[in-house]
Write a structure and sequence with these properties.
The protein is built from 16 helices and no strands. It has 416 residues and is mostly helical.
Length: 416
Amino acid sequence: MIGTFFSILLAAFIVFNPFVGEANLNATVLSIAMLATGILFLLMLPASIAFSWLPLQKAEQNATPRILEMYRKDAHLRLTSAWLAIFPLASFVLGLDVLYTHIFEVKIIFAIWIILLGITIDASQYLFKRILGYLNPFAVVEMFTKEANQAIRNEREEDLCQWIDALSEISIKAMQRHSSSLSNASINEQQQIARLFLKSSKSISHHSQDKQTIELGISDKISYVMFFLYQRLELEFDKAIKNNIEPTCSQIIVSLGKIAIDAANYDISIASPPLRFLGKFALLAQEKEMHETSIKASCTLLGVAHTILNEIEIAYQEIKDPFFSIVNAMEELAKGEFRKNKSMNISLLTQPFVELKAMFATGAAKDHVDTPAIIQNIDRVLGEFEALQMVMNTLPTIPEIREETIPPPPNLTPTP
């Protein structure tokens, strides 16, 4: 907009300044300048597209083929390119009028052309920035997120799944190049998309089915979209595990915890699947010796439990299923830690269960109808670890056996 602003000021100066007239403006030079500038911008448009095509193809290979699809359908690029094609034609018409027809005053034509030139300079700058945005993978992630959010607002779940798939593809290809920052950004955007989708689905104006879901035969589009997202997160986690990228594994664990909270806000019955995936991923990370990720998973599970009990209305909802999922995931993690280090203090393994049990002693959870069953499940786990502690205490200490040096056998070969 800077070019347009200054061009308007310059045009106003030319029109309203009494010292600027035909005597000061050489018609021949002015028309040549208009025609030359028009030719310059006419050549610049195809040149910019041609030079950007190879980097766009490389960006497509490194990210996702949807980049070129978005590029071809970008309405902003189309309008900007159309303006850059119109400006040379306008320059030719105005230049010929100055040189031959003289329909308008020279300074009026010059002022109009200056304004058009300022707009064209801004349009060119915008065109270059827009094209460069497709070459920046972080900008592409933001573009895909905007498209996904637009699909949510338009209630087009099939399109939404396609954009989630595109973000997942960017994340996986980023992990192939060991770019954890890009993969984490993509995973975070997927979590934000899930949050907006669940909030929008809770809106009273949201339809339970739309044209796309009816055509696909989907009766429960909430479960369809969410499980599609979980499957993509599973692909990303498997890739992160394979490449041993622990920050990305931790990011997926935390994102699933946030998704579980958002799902519980929508309907607590759909909070269990992300918790089960979280527990499954945490066990895989534990097997790969990713201690930070397994610890973060335990903390995330406790955080989800605390948020559900304190920030969500649970009085008339069944909460056994999600909390059984939390307890079972924590139990498997604790058992896995013990199998890896049988000399560790059992109280460290039981501490998360003690904290979880204490959450049901106050607030709305204290008198909830499902609390006794959940407490019983927690006590079962604590009882198993207490029994394990007793067994470990009764085991005798195995003495350390030192290896003694065995002398070499005597030489029995007869001397000649």
